[in-house]
Here is the input.
Amino acid sequence: MSLEQLGVSVWFDEFSLKVGDSLRQAIDRGLKHSSYGIVVFSKAFFSKAWTQYELDGLIERELQGGKVLLPVWHGVGHSDLLGFSPSLAGRFAFRSDEGVIRVAEKLQAFLEEKNGRAPLHKQRPSAQQSHRLDLLKDKPSV
Here is the structure.
């Protein structure tokens, strides 16, 4: 089950990029127009330049006000996050070891609650009611 199957509108840079496109410009567009950014923290994430760039953009948006960053821990624990960023280690995060479907359902429930609507099992959102998300995933090192 994917977030799109749960009625959540998703922007993912790898789906929208074509040969010759600027990755930086695509990321900036996605970050600018997304309500939230799901950041999957993994050991690979910590070593990639582009994921750092995306994270910086989300943190900057949060500094302007409001929750934007929705963290998911994948194969990492509190001590890994503490070594990477003490301020991020203190945030509640979903854990991928709960399973992809469960994490997607929790994210969808969070978004429904933020919009004041019943969860999907009670009310299925229309395409117009969907949220935009920026899915951040490990990118090739630059």
About this structure: The first helix runs from residue 13 to 16. The longest strand covers residues 36-41. Strands lie at 9-11, 36-41, 69-73, 94-95, 132-136.
